[in-house]
Amino acid sequence: MVSVFLQVLIGAILQGALYTLGAVGLSLSFGVLKILNLSHGDFLMLGGLLGFLALVHLGINPFISAAGVAVIGLLVGAVFYRLLIARIVGRSFRQMLITSVMTTLGVALVIEDLTSFLWGGGSTGIPFQMRDFVVGGVVFPGLRLTLLAGTIFLTFALHLFLSRTFIGRAIVASSVNRVGAIVVGINTEFVAVVTFSIGIALAAGTGVFYATLYSIEPFMGLALTLKYLAVIIIGGMGSLMGAMVGGFIVAAVEAYTSYFVGAEWAPMTAFVILIIALLVRPQGLLGRGE
Amino acid sequence: MISFVLLAGAFAAPAIANSYQISVLFFLFIAVAMTETYDITAGYMGYLNLGHGAFFGIGAYIYGMTVLRDGGTVTGLILSVVAAMAFASVVGYPLFRLRGAYFAIATFGILKLMEVLASNLRDLTGGTTGLSIPPTDGSTMITYYLSVLLCVASVALNAWFATSRFGLGLLTIREDEEVAEASGVQTGRLKLCALVASAALPGFAGAIYMWQTTYIDPDSGFGSSVAFAPVIMAVLGGGGTIVGPLVGTVFLTIVQEVLWSHVGYLQLTMYGVVLISVGIMMPGGLMRSRLISRLYALAGFPDHYGYYPSRQLKSGAHSENT
Lengths: 290, 322
Hints:
The structure holds 2 protein chains of 2 kinds.
Chain A (H helix, E strand, L loop, with lengths): L1 H32 L6 H19 L3 H27 L4 H27 L13 E3 L2 E3 L1 H23 L1 H11 L1 H6 L4 H26 L7 H15 L4 H22 L4 H15 L10
Antiparallel strand pairs in A: 1-2
Chain B lengths: L1 H15 L2 H26 L8 H16 L4 H23 L4 H21 L1 H4 L5 E2 L6 H25 L1 H11 L1 H6 L4 H27 L1 E2 L1 H5 L1 H14 L5 H20 L4 H15 L8 H10 L23
Antiparallel strand pairs in B: 1-2
Helix pairs in contact in B: 1-7, 2-7, 2-10, 2-12, 2-13, 3-4, 3-10, 4-10, 7-8, 7-10, 8-10, 12-13
């Protein structure tokens, strides 16, 4: 019983770390830009697809290709921002919300449809295996543990970036108070580009990890984005800590629900927690008031 | 005047159109009703309700369950409307503690909850395989006329919100809720009433959808496409106006029909490109784009298709060209 409990917990921690890395970009770009990017999950899907192609055709280890995919994501994010998002930023809040939903939904549809057209509609995972080891009756899956180490390392690096470097602190400052950030001389336009690109890069890089564990398919993006939205709202928008708390809560409840209640109820839990969290603390568990 | 011509056309359509065209019109009218009612909360009140499709799904499921239990068509129709309104009033109270993006996402969360419930409560809803009811004779014609009525009712309801004191209250909430509350608008009650009012017709739409197609499953009742369609159509036409949602719906339905029947592949891509271009270039929707505004001015219409639907309260309903 205890070992089962632990087994599920290990899975939940890994899933939570993946949720954190995937969702934190969405959270930061909402914090800084007040833009709801519905195509976020599609970049995760694209990242996973690139990782898959890199392993199958070039034989590149997913842990290496994840870095490359993240760099590509950085560039794509900058281009995406310049082409589309920059034209939406600066409208009134309600206008921005509605037009960003519309535009990024359009982007999501284009990405999903083009991917399924060029690649075929099937689902696939990255065929990459590592050895498992057993300690005291608990199976520690090798691949999952390595991934866990990778995601924790990345989360920690991201934390250092946000708290120690100038640009990272500028991102946090713009997220807390945009006008205040402008007043103290932060180039919020540049900060916006960087935030958005980093978000896309993280999503794409996480996609490679995601695809080594689960299968990806062209039309998974939107559903994933919505789950990420639930994750970051539960934790509180605009911070790494918020994404982490939300990610682990959702992952843990999902894992235990699907084990003890039934897998068909798991998709619902994220939204149940979301609604409860919103009613108890509308600004998120760790969020600041408006 | 134009509205009478269109209405007469809609009623006369079955005489000249084939059954495929009738069903296209049927779905168009349902989409118009969804968009026009969605626009009450989103366009006038400024609360983006991404879960508007839930009312539709509830209407369809309740109608299906009633008919399967030999409740009869009329009872089914009444029950689905009542259920949708009851649902709106139950979820409305907690939801309206939230604002802005949080409200939007919470409404979407509720929709997803309903989707999972619909696929998991197998005894009631048939699970993921969906719910089927036996087809009835002549249902195509009856539901077609009902959809025409539904469409007219939704436009009339939207027009009432555009011109009434109640609707003006919603506008003040949209522009600045604190100021509205401070100047004596009972925002809480108003918001709840608006949500319940916007739920009734989608419930009915769901019921006649079920009646006509005799089949509903979680995806066609509560799926993301059902939820996003009114949002996109309203934004495209121009939210917070009477004609905007109608124009947006008709425009997008035509785009879809043309894409689906004339282009073999990449329809979703083109649909997405349409969305992106409208989002970038016409943030106020088609009805607020400069070209259309100028045409309106040339035609001598009053400028209430601008950013505010109407501020002329005394004159009552205008002659809309709907």
